[in-house]
Design a protein that fits this description.
Mean pLDDT of chain B: 83
Largest sheet of chain A: 3 strands, antiparallel
Oligomer: heterodimer
Low-confidence stretches of chain A: 1-7
Order of helices and strands of chain A: HEHHEEH
Strand order of the largest sheet of chain A: 1-3-2
Largest interface: A-B, 26 and 28 residues
Shape of chain A: globular
Number of strands of chain B: 27
Number of helices of chain A: 4
Strand content of chain A: 5-15%
Distance between the termini of chain B: 65 Å
Largest sheet of chain B: 11 strands, mixed
Helix content of chain B: 40-55%
Mean pLDDT of chain A: 82
Distance between the termini of chain A: 37 Å
């Protein structure tokens, strides 16, 4: 299992941050939500999800808390820190600029 | 910034709550897995199918966990702990290597730390006063010496020591009127104070007489420095006025020495130079005065000076320069601004008035050197030697580094197999590299610890040596402070990296396959080239470096030791053995007139009849104690010349065993009539005759001491040349005059070991006057040792460091050859099996050692040729490039290194071919 490339990794971070920005969520929930929202287009590589979560936590963008899940089981819920919220806004802007730019290039011909 | 709020607890948890985190990680992944299984089961899979499919989808749980751990960065610390444990085990398994490495490093680091703590104490540590960086002292310079009525120059003044008897017109002495004018500059200085160093005071406490160092200070002194009293109060402006009660402040250490730190001392009356003073307070414990070179015992108000000395300075005279002026700059005032403003005041003061001291074109100039680190006496005397010693110990440390590096290299070579196994099992280059670096840093840390202990012992005995030999009591405090500790940690880390890096880099990237297959190939082409295989290139370089550096240190040391020998064996012109000297200052005890005139002859008579004493003389001052006086002399019909002057009492020349060349020495007549007769008499030395009479007979010649009067001095005798103030100074023309009553130095020639007679001399003086203190009672040889203090310090220490360097280099050479012999046993075995004789094997190994030493010696000599000329200022009677020293050092090095080579070479000849070859 090779490490994800920078682009994929960066994208995964963005997706995770955006997903937990709405409400605290556990890892499995994050993966499911991304798949659902993207209409099954984006499938998060399960092996990459948890390292990414731990890295974001270590960087101080998200924080974790153990809570009761739906069926009374303990699960680790991730949520955004204030610094993570600012980081997300910044990354969103970057992403939009980048994808718009790529769009311009692709429409050229 | 906010992020740290989240990050820090996580990092700490990663370090200290590992089990908990592991469990959480497992739980988290387990939860995910179950959710997956639930989802798949809901879509109709059987529980087994769902479980299998979920596991496939998730991938390797252990890999994910490892990646998560990586993300937590716990691995660095964990690896580090592992490296430390492994390293400790490695070092324990090789106690010989470990001990040699730690001792070598400990010696190197210890020597550096010891010298550094001395440098720190003398040059770097700020004075224990408030805001020391604001303190300055006034220093003037001009193109001409001003026309002064009297002046004093202070050793603490930060001027360059030129070694000339005629110094440049500059100094730190000012007149009292100038002090008052500078004191008016309150827009620049927040405080201005005056300071007058004094000769020792005779102090009598409860009938016990002794001497004390002290200085006169103006009333602002203590307040300007921001000091607080340990007991009582410190001097203030009201104490420094003509009709104030006489008050004295004691230093903390004097208080403890003389009064056991008793608080009852406040209000006590002690007599200083026979004048009663009231103790009003005790200074703070860490304060010894502004000059580290002289620890003060007492501080007296400036206004008391006329009461204590006969030739006091007149405060109103602008042509009498005797005060040092210190000042505290106001915060925000630039140096240049303060300097310009002070210069205006000074210039106006010295160039105006009825009789200006200087002309405007003499360019009187003021500088404001900062004295936050104390006045300069000690720095001037020890600055150069200390930096020289620092350079020497730095070289020793470099040699130690090279030595340990070559030991490490040898050891890592022996550990090739281990590294190969590790890298075959997947260890990365950086991992092995880190492991080795950790080991070397551990060695460095242990060496550093040992070094701190050695340095503590060393610097204490160094400070003891300084204190015992310096002319005044010293205020050097060598206790290790934060700066010294930081220095030690820094050099220990640096050495760890320096000696660890090369071996680590080399073995971490060594090839795996050949190392795993066995030891180096036996009969490759490489071996046939003989004993200079390229693979030990780095080891060779390290040994060559050690030899070269130790030659450099040895060379420097040999020059300094030879300087000491030249000085110690110098013919000083008198017999310095079996001679006791001591000084008496009766005027400080109120002796005057007849009583004063009778004291010295009576003392001379009483000492002369002591058993074991063969003769007694006295003079105005001791020889070879650093002091001298000189004056102008005029020859009829010629211009003036300068000659050294020493006033001597009866039997001086006989006692000192200075030979009479022609004429006569003084008789009782010369002393009785000295003050009344018109024509005075003088005895001169041979240099005087050579210089001024071109060798003609000088006896009977007339000279004058005042060019406006007719000749008034007749030369009655010529004596042999002697060194006067310092061994290093040449012999100047000298005149000896009959001594007038006053303070002076007694010289007692003994027939026995002079030390034995010291108690009876004390008793003899006490029987005459128990209040009369003896100053600087010692043998003449001790006095000369004090004069050679700097040379002895430098020669002994650099000699010790050079020996250390030589020993360390030999250990390095021995280590490399011994290791090679072990590594090449097979080859030696084959050679011997093929008919090589033990002699040839011996020659093989010795030859290799000789080649290394020769290369190192050539490089070292080349470096010495370039560097020893910088020692010039510390040498005397030895040229910086001294063929004898070069030859001696090279021969010494060859002999010692051959010893180091011989042991491993002998071992090589003991190799049994059968045993050696059985390994194949």
């Amino acid at each position: 299992m090779g490490k994800p490339t920078d682009l994929v990794q960066g994208t995964l971070d963005l997706l995770i941050l955006k997903t937990v920005a709405l409400e605290p969520m556990h890892g499995w929930g994050i993966a499911r939500r991304i798949r659902q929202v993207s209409k099954e287009v984006l499938r998060v590589n399960q092996g990459a999800l948890y390292p990414a979560l731990h890295r974001l936590e270590q960087s101080g963008w998200i924080k974790a808390k153990w809570c009761e899940s739906e069926n009374n089981r303990q699960a680790k819920y991730y949520s955004l820190t204030p610094a993570g919220r600012r980081y997300l806004e910044q990354e969103e802007t970057n992403w939009k600029r980048l994808s718009a730019a790529i769009g311009l290039v692709l429409e050229m011909s | 910034m906010m992020r740290w709020f989240y990050k820090l607890p996580l990092r700490l948890r990663s370090l200290f709550r590992k089990a908990r985190l592991e469990k959480e990680l497992a739980d988290e992944l387990h939860f995910h897995l179950e959710k997956l299984i639930e989802g798949k089961a809901a879509r109709g899979m059987t529980p087994e199918e769902a479980r299998y499919s979920a596991l496939c989808e998730l991938g390797g749980v252990e890999q994910i966990k490892e990646e998560c751990r990586d993300m937590r960065r716990v691995n660095y610390t964990e690896n580090f702990m592992q490296d430390v444990r492994y390293g400790l085990r490695q070092l324990r398994h090789n106690p010989g290597f470990t001990a040699v490495a730690i001792v070598t490093l400990g010696l190197g680091i210890g020597a550096n730390t010891a010298i550094f703590s001395l440098i720190n104490a003398v040059m770097l540590r700020p004075l224990p006063v408030r805001d020391p960086q604001q303190l300055v002292v006034l220093k003037w310079s001009a193109r001409q010496w001003p026309k002064l009525n009297g002046g004093d120059s202070w050793s603490g003044c930060p001027i360059k020591a030129t070694g000339l008897k005629e110094p440049a017109p500059e100094g730190c002495s000012f007149s009292y009127p100038m002090f008052e004018q500078v004191r008016g500059q309150n827009n620049i200085f927040s405080a201005v104070f005056a300071l007058v160093p004094s000769p020792q005071f005779g102090v009598s406490i409860d009938g016990h007489a002794g001497f004390a160092n002290g200085e006169y200070v103006s009333g602002e002194f203590f307040r300007a420095l921001g000091l607080r009293a340990s007991a009582g109060r410190l001097l203030g402006p009201p104490d420094d006025s003509a009709n104030a009660p006489l008050a004295v402040v004691l230093s903390h250490s004097y208080w403890e020495r003389q009064f056991g730190g008793a608080p009852s001392v406040i209000g006590k009356v002690i007599t200083i130079n026979n004048v009663p003073f009231t103790v009003i307070g005790v200074g703070p414990p860490e304060f010894f005065g502004l000059d580290l070179g002289i620890a003060q015992d007492l501080w007296l108000p400036l206004s008391t000076q006329p009461r204590l000395v006969r030739y006091f300075r007149k405060t109103e005279d602008p042509a009498s320069w005797w005060l040092m002026i210190g000042a505290r700059l106001k915060p925000g005032v630039e140096d240049a601004q303060a300097q310009a403003a002070t210069e205006v005041v000074f210039r106006r003061g010295v160039t105006s008035g009825p009789s200006p001291l200087l002309k405007p074109e003499d360019a009187p100039h003021i500088e404001l050197p900062h004295i936050g680190r104390g006045l300069a006496t000690l720095r001037k005397n020890f600055g150069d030697p200390l930096f020289l010693l620092m350079a020497a110990v730095a070289l020793v440390l470099l040699i130690a580094c090279a030595n340990v590096a070559s030991l490490m290299l040898a050891r890592t070579a022996a550990r090739q197999k281990e590294f190969a196994v590790r890298s075959a099992l997947g260890a990365e280059f950086s991992r092995i590299f880190r492991q080795l670096l950790t080991e070397s840093l551990m060695l460095a840390a242990a060496g550093g610890l040992l070094g701190v202990v050695l340095a503590w012992l060393g610097s204490r005995s160094l400070a003891g040596f300084l204190a015992a030999n310096w002319f005044a009591s010293l205020a050097v405090d060598v206790h290790p402070d934060l700066r010294v500790l930081a220095f030690t940690v820094a050099i220990a880390a640096l050495t760890g990296i320096i000696f660890g890096l090369a071996p680590a880099a080399r073995s971490a990237r060594s090839a795996v396959a050949p190392a795993l297959k066995g030891s180096a190939p036996l009969l490759s082409a490489e071996v046939n080239k003989g004993w200079n295989p390229r693979r030990s290139g780095l080891g060779n370089a390290l040994v060559v470096t050690q030899v070269a550096l130790s030659i450099l240190v040895l060379m420097g040391a040999s020059l300094l030791v030879r300087t000491l020998i030249v000085l110690a064996t110098m013919n000083v012109g008198f017999d310095a053995h079996n001679l006791i000297i001591f000084s008496v200052e009766p005027e400080l005890n109120g002796y005057q007139g007849e009583r004063l005139a009778g004291l010295f002859p009576e003392l001379q008579r009483r000492l002369g009849v002591l058993p074991g004493v063969s003769s007694v003389g006295y003079s105005a001052g001791p020889l070879l104690a650093g002091g001298y006086s000189a004056r102008d002399v005029y020859f009829p019909g010629q211009s003036g010349e300068q000659a050294d002057v020493l006033d001597v009492g009866p039997h001086f020349f006989e006692t000192m065993r200075i030979p009479l060349v022609s004429g006569r020495t003084y008789d009782a007549q010369d002393f009785n009539s000295a003050s009344t007769k018109k024509m005075k008499v003088a005895i001169v030395n041979q240099s005087f005759v050579r210089r001024f009479y071109k060798g003609r007979n000088a006896v009977g010649q007339l000279i004058c001491l005042d060019d406006k009067k007719p000749p008034d001095v007749e030369i009655v005798g010529v004596v042999g040349d002697t060194k006067y103030n310092e061994l290093r100074q040449g012999i100047e023309p000298t005149m000896y005059f009959p001594m007038q009553p006053g303070g002076g130095t007694f010289e007692v020639r003994t027939a026995l070991d002079p030390k034995i007679l010291i108690p009876s001399i004390r008793a003899a003086v006490r029987s005459l006057d128990s209040n009369l203190p003896l100053a600087r009672l010692m043998t003449q040889s001790e006095q000369i040792d004090q004069d050679m203090f700097q040379e002895r310090l430098v020669a002994w220490l650099s000699g010790a460091f050079a020996l250390l360097a030589l020993v360390v280099a030999c250990i390095g050479l021995y280590g490399l050859l011994a290791f090679e012999v072990t590594q090449r046993r097979h080859e030696v075995g084959v050679r011997m099996a093929l008919g090589a004789s033990p002699r040839q094997v011996l020659g093989l190994v010795l030859g290799r050692g000789v080649r290394l030493v020769a290369v190192g010696a050539v490089l070292g000599i080349a470096a010495s040729l370039g560097l020893t000329p910088y020692l010039q200022s510390l040498l005397y009677g030895v040229r910086p490039i001294d063929p004898l020293a070069f030859a001696a050092v090279t021969v010494l090095l060859l002999i010692v290194t051959m010893g180091a080579c011989y042991v491993p070479a002998r071992r090589a000849t003991k190799v049994d071919p059968l045993v050696a070859l059985r390994y194949e």
